[in-house]
Structure formats: C-alpha cells, structure tokens
Batch of 2 targets.
Target 1
Amino acid sequence: MLEINNLSKHFGGLAAVANLDLNVKGGEIFGIIGPNGAGKSTILNMIDGYLRPTSGKVIFKEEDVTSCAPHERARRGIARVFQSNILFSDIPAMTNVRIGCYLHSGIRFWASFLGIKKRIDRQEMLLYEKAEEILKFVGLYEEREKEAASLAHASQRRLCLAIALAVDPSLLLLDEPLAGMTAEEVASMLIVVRGLREKKGITFIIVEHNMKAIMRLCDRIAVINYGKKIAEGPPTEISKNPEVIEAYLGAAEHAI
Amino acid sequence: MFDITGEAIAQSVLNGFCLGWSYILIAIGLSLIFGIMNILQFAHGEVYMLGSYCVYAFSVMVGLNFFLALIISIALMALLGLFLERFIFRPLGGELLTTLIVSLGLMIILQAGVQVGFGVTPKSYPIISHAAVANIMGMKMAADRLMVVGISIAAILGLFFGLKKTKLGQALIASAQHFAAARLMGINPNLMAATAMAIGSALAAVAGGLMGSIFRFDPFMGGAALLKGLIVVITGGKDSILGVVLAGLLVGLVDGIFPVLFGPAVASIASLVIVVIILLIRPQGFLGHAQ
Amino acid sequence: MPNRKLTKSFTLVVFIAFMFLYPILSRNMYWIHILSIVFINVLLTSSLRTINLTGDVSLGTGGFLLVGAYGSALLAMKLGLSVWLSMLLGGLMTAITAFLLGFVVMRTKGVYFSIMTLLVSEILRLTMWYWKDLSGGSQGLNDIPRPNAITIFGLKTITFDTRFTMYYFILVIVALCLLALFRLERSLGLPWTALKKSDVLSESIGIDVSGYRHVAFVISCFFTGIAGALFAHYMGLLEASELGKFAMLSSIYIIIYMVVGGAGSFWGPILGAGLLTIMPEIFRPLKEYQPIFFGLLVILIMFFMRQGLVSLPHNLRIGWIRVGRHLKKYAVQRVSSR
C-alpha cells in the first residue's frame, strides 16, 4: 500500500531522515519506534505531505504522491491523528466529525449556492448519519453534543481519530496515540484500532513510545535511530535485536 | 539621472540617515508595544505627529528653547502613552481585533484634534538655519541634519543602556522575549505594559520632534509614519533591536537616495516592492527568529 | 422560536421596501446621495467580510477598489464600451488582478497578510497616481459617463443622469451582489470557517486551505471592484491621491465599519457601514470636530459591544432578562419580609 524509497530530509546541514526505505502492506498495522528526536515525526510529516523530502519518493497505492499537498493525500486516502489534540475546539464533537465528512460528502457547489433545498437536506442527512456511525464506533456517541474543548483528554484523542476516520482513509497515521492514557484507555484504543483494521481494512502506521502496547498491537515494526532505519521485522525479532537495545540504552545514557 | 552632483548624493545620504533613524525610533516603539502587549497600536503614527506639534507649540508659540520644548514634548507623549495604556488598552483585554479598532478610533480622534487645534497648513520650526553648513572631512553637510542624526543615536543608545542597566529595563526585555515566563517569575504585566507604552510613545515623540525641525509636517503624516514603522519592524524582525536598526537605516537610505537618483515614482513604488519581496522570502525579517 | 425568524424576515422586507420607496417619498436629494454612498460602502464592507471569513483582515480594499473604478471608467471612456459592460469588466479585471496577486499574497497569514495587502494596495495606487496618462494625476479622471439609458419593454426609457435614477441603479446592483455573497457564504462557508479555526486540521481532512483562501480573496476583490465601478460612474471623477478614496485611511474605515457592525454575522457589515456612513452626516454641524465624535463613538461601541452592533438585540435581551430577575428577587424579598 505505501512504499517509501530512499527518503531523506535535510534541515540545513543536519540529516533528520536519511535514505529510508519502507514498505507497508495493505491491512497491516505497522509500528515506528525509536528514541526521542530520531526523526519519527519527520517521517510521518513526509508521508502525509506536511514536509517535502529533500530526496526520495513516497508512493501510495502505486502512485507517486511525493509532490502532493496534504489535502490531496487526504483525498486519496491518507489520514492522520496528530500528536497534540488538534480539534475545532469551540464546536461540539458531532460538528467536528461532520466537517470531516464534508470531503467525501458529494455536496455540490451549485446545489448549495442556488439553495436547492431538497438536495441540501438530503446531503446534510447523509453527513449526519455517517458522523453518528463513526462516533458510535469510537465510543463517543454519548458525548457527541459536548464542546470539543471540554472533553477529557482520552475522549479528545478519540475525537481526533473520529475526524480522521471521516475522510474514509485507507491509510491512517497515528502519532503517539497512547500518550497520556491510563492502562484502561490504552486497552480500549488497541481494541478500536484492531476493530478498524478488521471491519474497514484500514492500514495503520503508528509512531509510539509505549513499548508494551506496540509490541502487542503491530504486525511489523521499524526502528529508527538518528534518522536511519536500524531494524525492521515482527515484534518478537525486534525485541531481541541487540542493535535496537543498544540504541535505547545509548539514548538513555545520553539522557542522563 | 546623470547630472547629479556628488554633493547632492552626500546630502541625500544624510537625509536618508535622518529618515532612517526616525523610522528606527518609531519601529522600536511599535515592536515593543506589540511584543509586550500583543496589540497593534495603530495610533502610534499620530503620537509621532503629535511629537512634532508639541515641539511646535512650545517652541514657536510659547517661545521656549527647542531642546526644552523637545523634552516637554517627550514627557507629554510618555504621559499620553501611560494614559492610553491604563484607561483604554488595559480595560479592553488583549484581543487583537478589538484593540486594533480602538487604536484606529484613537487615530481618527488625534488626527482631527490636531486639525482643529492647528489647522492643516504644513508647519515647521527650524532650529538652525537650513543653510547652516558644517564641514566634515572636507565635505559640506547640513548642520541641522547632522544634529538630528546625533540626537537620534544618543536617544537609541540611552534606551539601550537604560534597558540593560536598570531592573525595569531588564524586566522589559524578559517580558518581550517570553511574556508568560516573565509573568510566572513575578513581573507585573501591567507595569510592563505601561512602561512599553510610555517608552514607545516617548521614542515616537523624539522622532517627531526632530523630524519637524528639518522637514515640514502636517496633521496627516501619521499614517505614512506608521506604515514606515511597520515596514521596518517586518524587515528587521520584531524580535531583534539590531535588526530593526539595520532595517531602519536601509529603508531610510532607500527613501533618501532613490528619489534623487530615480525620481519619486520609481522610488516610492520600488521601496514597497522590495519590502514585499522580503516579506515573501524571509518573513521573519533579517535577524528575526523563524516561526 | 418561530417568532424570531419571522420578525427577522419581516424587518428585512420592511427595510428593503423602505429603501425602494424612500426617494419617492422624500425627494431630499442630499439624503438620496448619502444613501447611495451607503449602499456602495455596504458592498465594500460585505466583500471585506468574505476575506475575514477565512480568518484574515485585508488592508488592501483601497487598491482593489481603484482597479475596479479606473478599469471600468477607462474602458468606457477610452474604448467607448457601454457602462453596463465596462462595469462588469471592471469587476472581472479586479478579480483577475486578485487572482494573480493572490499567488503572492496567499503565502502570508495573519498580521503579515494584512501588511502584505496594505503594501500591494499602495503599490497599485502609486502606480496609478504616477501613470498620469491613465489617471490624470492630481487633476484626476473627470467626466466619467453614467450608465447608458435602458428601455424597458420597449416602452419606457430610463436615463441615469440624475442622482435619483442612479440611486436605484446602485441599490439594485448592490442588492444583487449581496444576494450572491449571501449564497456564496452558504455554500463555501463551511470550508472557510473550518480553515479559519484550524488550517492544519482542515488540510488533513482534505480541505485545500490555500485554494479556498485564494477563492475567498478573488471573490472578495471581484465585489470590491464592482463597488469601485459603481463609485466611478456615480461620482463622475476619480483621483488616486493619498488623501482620497483609494488610500490607506479609506481601507481602514471599511475595517472599522465591519468590526463595529459585527464581523461574525452577515448583517454586521451592512449595519456597520450603514450607521457609520450616516453618522458623520448627522454630525456635520460639528464641522471639524465631527471626526473626534466619530472616533469616540467607535471606541465606545468597542468597549461595550465587542461583537459589534449586530449583537445589540441579543445584549438587550440578556439585559432585559437580568432586570426581570432582579425585580423578581426584590419582589420575593419584599413578600417574605412581611
């Protein structure tokens, strides 16, 4: 589904990401881990278009999207849940998701411009139904009328996920989705992710620091250190890989 | 374009320096006020204009010595700044659009007020005769321009040392760099805002008072002054005093020399186009921090 | 409440009827002229709001007003086109200018965007000011023609050489433009509001943020250009000086109209432009003191009604409810103390 060829990103003289190759298969849950500052967020930014790579290609569903803007990639099916809770904070959760549904809603400009009431009403109905379905799936249906800013952190996370689901993605990028969650909340998020893969066939790329969760969840994991991939494979292999352990210990030493 | 004497060029360079330093004084005030209070004080140009008229009132109409009139003008404008901060901007809270409209209302009031009080015909108050010439390094230069540049530089240096050496000044610098952190350390935000307004307005008064002695002024020049101030802040970078100084001198020199070399049309349009280009390729200014 | 919507529609109908009937009832040429200017300002302020819907404030109204005004005037005068056609072309010229300049201007946001629009506007104005062949320099462009006469149903011919007929010309065109703006807000309002709230999030859900901003800019400038053309053919003369209608101060007044009226509502700019254009005329007896009162009024309104005049009914209602509550409390106290 997603192929990354020889991707690099240089900031000034510094290589944040160097010669990265990745190949994520459809329906996979793919994890990206690594010490802080290894370049993981930069990789996500290049996958969904917020950063242009210095060199290399991003190929999605066999099409080269390297020069596409983020909104264009969203149209093709790449969605993202950001590290910080980016929401439309002063409106209810339901409206947040409805705005997300706008993209694929098929609302035609001329119908709304000329005010053709029947078509508008029908389209609005479809938006409502779709948004309700998504909210139910992530477990936010009860809180759907609450203002986004007033939701608890974990609920806000789920709302971000709901908004990302609204664009009907085939690839979903999760940037540290489990940060700040209790063990219960983590468990329920894992169930949601697995459920989305099973029911909707969504492919996931997840950047996370929560080792236990990642090991349990992902089919394959890539380990990034100093912008380079140092290991890739199923969780069992990764956890035993001496280079990976060295990278984390080394990072811990520097941190002290 | 080719029959311009070297003396004319020297004169225009000196004019450019005068203009440049006045832009710097205005720009530092604007940047200080925006940095600390996060408001766009669009009446700042009128404070500059009022600086000229205050000096006019006290020197020409009352008959005081120019320097005394200048000091009174600076004091009065600083008081005006304090008044505006305490009774207009502080009660409003920090919302950008609201304070912008209020400052625009102030701009209209001040402009009309000066029109009512002094009329629309341009005024001036030469301190030394415009013809007086000093001989610097074998070149003849207008003495009054030299004096203006000298006093402007003295004012900036005075400000610089005042900021670095006094507790109030250091608190101001800290607040300008990171307002939330400064507040957490116990620095009183209202005091900072008041100081910023007072200093900013005082600097504008210095610029106005000095410029009025070499160029004619009218009640409508506030808008152009504000625009120049904004341009200098943007090109210099709102985080950096040195950047503002460099940008101010550059813009001033362009404004001084281009009209002589290329005529007013090309000069005025070219200087704006240059700013547009700078805004596009380096929006944080020469020495500002990237966003 | 169905009541509220009904009263709103009712007031609107009454208002429009009044606008159409006023000249016939009043015959006061002075106020007919003022109202014509009001209509042009209303169009200007409403088109400024279109840019504001995407979260930006444009200081460039003057420059684009100039393109529409001079564009239409020059096409009519130098190429002999019908004014009806030249006005439309003037608007299109402004839209095309905005489209091209948009690639430059759209790369900035927030305060930088505002300053960029101001710079662009001044560049346009100065270019025209110094291009004396086109603009007439300080003499200005004079004898700009009125719209060509039209014949209705082959029977009645209407000429537009009086202020009376021009009033209706302007009223009808402005009303049509406002209708178009209203419908545009209904159709494009959602992506515009979304990108105003968060451009990052909007981009990630497929909204072409820079595209929609560009569209808003072009639409806004089109209607600004139409307003300019109306201004040109109504006033009959144009000048591009720094004290005129195309200078920075003029753009600033439009922003004041928008915010004082209330930028959050479609009717806000209309209210603001209407009231604040009329106000200096009512205070004309104050002569040179008038702007001082204008400025004071603006400041007072900002202090007490931050969302603008359009929130006045809402604030009055809240005030009324509070008064009612206090009275009730007082009454209960009186009763229980017996």
Note: Chain A touches chain C through 31 residues (CB under 8 Å).
Target 2
Amino acid sequence: MGLEILVCIKQVPHPDHFSEIQVDVGRGRVIGAGIPVIMNPLDRHALEEALRNKERFSGRITVIRMGRPRLQKAVEEALAMGADRAVLLYDTAFAGPDTLATAFTLFHAIQRLGKFDLIYCGNETVDSGTAQVGPQLAELLDIPQVSSVQEVSFVDEKSLEVRRAWEHGHMKVRLKLPTLLSVTRDINTPRLPTVQGIMGVPQKEVIIWNAEAIQAPLENVGLNGSSIYATGVHEFRAGRRREIMQGSTGEKVRRAVARLKELGAI
Amino acid sequence: MTKRGSMSDSGEIWVIGEQRLGRLEEVSLELLSKGMALSQSMGVTLSAVLLGDEVEEIARELVFHGAEKVYLLEDARLRYYQSEAYARLLAGVIKEREPQVVLIGATEIGKELAPKVAAKLRTGLTAHCIDLYVGEVDAAPQLIHVVPGWGGNLVMHIICPQKRPQMATVKPGVLLKAARDENRKGKIIRVKPDIGDKDFSRIETLEMIEESPKGKPLESADIVVCGGWGMNALGDFSMLQELADILGGAIAGTRPATDKGWVDEDRMIGQSGKTVSPGLFVSLGASGAMHYTTGFMGSKVVLGVDQNPQAPIFQMADIGIVGDLREVLPCLIEELKKDRMPEKL
C-alpha cells in the first residue's frame, strides 16, 4: 500500500536579493515585490527524502504550500522533481499569520486531505527562519516530531531511528509513524528535475483551496489567529567605525594593526 | 505611576535553564542577565525552570546567576532531552504557575521545544530575539521583542499584547552573560514530574552523543578569524589558520566557505549557523551579505578585508582593508609575527 507522504514547502525571496528588500517604516511592512523567488532551499532536501522513501516503499507524495496561486515556481519545481500532486492554500483570511496560525492553516488542510504516514518540512526557511511551523503543526496533529534531522533510517515500516543535531554533537531518536520530521541540509543531496519531470508537470493534479474549502475557523488563521504582531520594522544599523585604511598594502596592514592595538583588540 | 496596561499582572518572568549531559549551557546565563533586567523594570520575580536527572547543582548555579526561584523537575528518564516529556511537563508547570514571560534559548533543542510548548498553550512565540525590553506601544507598556528579519538586514519589533505567557526564543551568543555571585540567595522548588511510559512510547531519545570539537572552540574564543568565498584566491584555509594561530583565535567560515569544505560546517557564521561576539572578529574575503553579518554583529571590534571597496562588509567593520587577499593576508601575518617576536633575546 505504500506511504502517504506530505511535504510542506515555502516559496521565498532569493537570499542573494535580500538587500533589495525595502521597508515601509510607516506601515511596518517589508516590500519584496519584483524580487526573484525560489523554493526554500531546505524544502528541496525535505522533498528529496520523501522521494527516496517513496522509491523504497512506494506510495504517494503530496506537496502543500500557502500563498498566491499565480506564483507557482516552488510548486512547479516540486512537481518536476517528482511530487505526485500539489495543494495550494490561498485566501486573504490566511494573510499575516504568526507561526501558530500558519500551522493551523496547514492543519485544517491536512484534516481534509486525510492521514499521512510521514510529513517532511525543511528545518527552517531562509527568510524568517523561525523553525517553528513544523513542531507546531505536529502538536496540532498530535504526532511526534523531530527538528534538525540529519539522517533517517527505517527500523521497520512503522518506526524510524533518526539522527538529530545539537550544538555539541548528535542524538539518536527512535519514533513511531505517523511523524513529522524537520530536515537539515546534511540529510541528502536533492536531485535536479529531469526533462521528463518538467514535461510531466502540466499533467499533475494541483488542488487550490481557500478557508471555506478546508473549513478553517477564521479565528485560527491569518492575522486573526496570530498572537504576535510587528509594531515596526527598522533597518539594522551596525554602529561601526568604518575606517578604511589607506596607502600601499604594507601601509594599510601596518595602520590596521596599529589601530587594532589602540582599540585593545589585539 | 504609569498605567501598565496589559502588563499589569504579577506573573513571574521565567527562563528555561538548559542543561545537556549535566552541564549548563551558556545561553541560560545570557537569558538570566536579560531576565534580571526585565524583572527589575517590570517589578516581578525572575525564576528559572530546570529539567534533568540529578541536576540540583545546576539549579544552584542558576541561583548564583540571578534566578530568585528555580523550579526543579528531576527524573532519571529526563537525563536526555525527551521531546514529548519535556514539552508536556513544561507546558504543565507553566499552566499551573502562570508566568507572564517565558524565555528559551534558540538552541537546536530550544528551537524545537519552545514552539511545541507555545502550541500546547496556544500562545505567542517570537523566534531568535536579539534583544527584549519594556517599551511603550500606543501608550501602553509592552515587552518589545527585537527580531532580525530578512537575513538580518532589518530588525522587527514584535509584541504579544493579549496571550500569556508571552514566549520568546533568544539567539545564543548575543546577550551578555549574568555574573556569578555565590552570595545570591534563591529558592529551589521541587516539582514532581508526572511522567510515564506514554511519554516515551511514540518518541524517545536513545542516546545523546557529544562530539569533541576539532580545533579551538568558536563560542568561547576572544578572537575569531572567518573566511568567505574570496579565500578561493588562496585555494584553502591554511593561511587563514596561520593567522588565527598567531592571534590565538578560532577559525570560522561563511556558508560558501563551509560548502567548499575549507572549514567544518559547525564553524559556519551567520543566520543558519553560529553567532559569536568576540573581542575581535576578522572577516576575510566575505562581501558581507546580511545573513552572514548577523552572526557577528555583537563583536567588540570588526576587521574586514575584501577586494571590492563597495562590499557591504565595510559598513559592518571598524577597520577596513580594501585589497587582494593574496597580498594582504601574508603581509598581515608578517606584521603580526614581527609583533609577537621579542626584539632581543
């Protein structure tokens, strides 16, 4: 019968273009329009692990994403890599969520999709990078979850042993399916989509659901479901001396060393 | 006295003490120093919570570093971090004692534990704060959570006006550590952990393995020498290592440098890696993308070397050298060697 696997993906601005993101200080918003987008890098590792599981045990892979349906770069890439179908969650009611409201949106969609044996997430995104949605979604689903996963081994079809990183080493964690795993880049090397994969994308099923379709209570999702709010966005100012050494290479180095001594740094 | 608005309650400020294999993590001391400042400005008690097995000595350390109370949950099965047991016990003790603020280190484990607890409590949680302070928003005092966003390019001020407790994870290596004072008095309050087999049936940490770090540890180094993509010009990190050795510093790298394998992944500086705040941070051949610079912004002095005079690293540096690393680095090594050599024997 194989595994039912869900992979949560996010589309994010390309990190090389973060410096182009503008701030509307008055409205406390960031403006990222026109900036190239990519699938969050760790989500590709999450999908790769799902593809490997499917190759071994057979099954079906669904990818799920919140966001505007017309910007589909991440979803198209996921389908081209080998995901079987995609679910897009879009509704103005979903906008402005904190991580728990995001987790609730995914939770309600999963209630409609049915049961999954395994859910994979990237450990964190490159934009907000909270690493919180995975653990919170698992709590709502009442399934065990592990973050910072570096390696997954199946003990049998119903249980796993995973290697998980911590600051000074790693941990071995045993867990039973169904489970949610948040993976790091150590876990695998994601495949590139093949030409065949890319050609096959238009034939794959893409489901678009709004709040009504997933019966999401409006008090759980979006800004309404959020407990925390940004009151302001500020450009980060470093407050550094910014002294550029002048002269020949030798002079620059001697001056730099002299200044570092004056500052008590060496 | 000013109106305290939604912060009027007398709930305590809590710091979750992190011990790993019987040792207190440094970030707990950072949380305690911030917790002390907040407890003074809010006029409430600062307490810590500690889970583990035979860790009373660590509980006393938390007192010496500023906790007025320590809630201690001890059990042999809590020796390792256990995801479901830790999350359930913490949520339980928070529900029972109703602190108004809960701070957790944004460590590999804290980043998993905090969101689980916040989800159980259906409350707000901010991620990897670099500062927290009491400020005014719409004429009401609020705890302002300062969070870096978009790779550290921007900082966001976030509040949690309604839900309690308000929770935050705090980025390790940014805040000052609380000073130790053995004369500090505090109460250690034992809370019997109500755990059973069910807490370990779906998930269990079997083993927690410590790997001895290679080379000088990064977090405690007073000087950090970090290389970026520009080190490509030199082929590897051997000259960078030489500079670090002369300075008595630790080596580190940017994401491209760790991708290249020039330096171990656990020495990566930046948003998805380590944050360091040494006395001197030397950045070599890194342009200064914000997701990198966020990893050393607390450093006392920054020396930046890059060949591109327009590189953002020079906005983040106290001392800047524009030049080719193939010339600058050997010259810098010679200059410092000269310096270390006694004039006469």
Note: Residues 98 and 229 of chain A are 8 Å apart (CA to CA).
